[in-house]
Amino acid sequence: MPWTLLFLAGLLEIGWAVGLKYTEGFSRLWPTTLTVAAMVGSVVLLGLAVKQIPLGTAYAVWTGIGAVGTAVFGILLFGDAATPARLACLALVACGIIGLKLVG
């Protein structure tokens, strides 16, 4: 269960990071409301997950999920560069997340 909570926390981190783009500097009410809700939910779920997962592992996985997911959404939604080198680096981060799960 703690790994599920951590995964959901990571998904919410992606949601709030992408949501920042839509808030337009926190000037739009609903995107801002949803973004802040995702921020709170992400941190709450992370807090619950670290009750049973070592803090360093949980934080690294949480930020890794957020970083990879946000980069992928940046490519898909906002036309961010998808160079082979960038994709390879994202794959390395994903491998690190998987490795931490396997040994944690």
UniProtKB/TrEMBL annotation:
InterPro entries in UniProt: EmrE-like, Small_drug/metabolite_transptr, Small_multidrug_res
Q: Does the keyword Kinase apply?
A: no
Pfam families in the record: Multi_Drug_Res
Q: Where in the cell is it found?
A: Cell membrane
Listed transmembrane segments = 29-50, 57-79, 85-103
Its domain of life reads: Bacteria
Per UniProt, which keywords does this protein have? Cell membrane, Membrane, Transmembrane, Transmembrane helix, Transport
Annotated membrane topology is:
Multi-pass membrane protein
Write out the similarity annotation.
Belongs to the drug/metabolite transporter (DMT) superfamily. Small multidrug resistance (SMR) (TC 2.A.7.1) family. Gdx/SugE subfamily.
Q: What is this protein called?
A: Guanidinium exporter
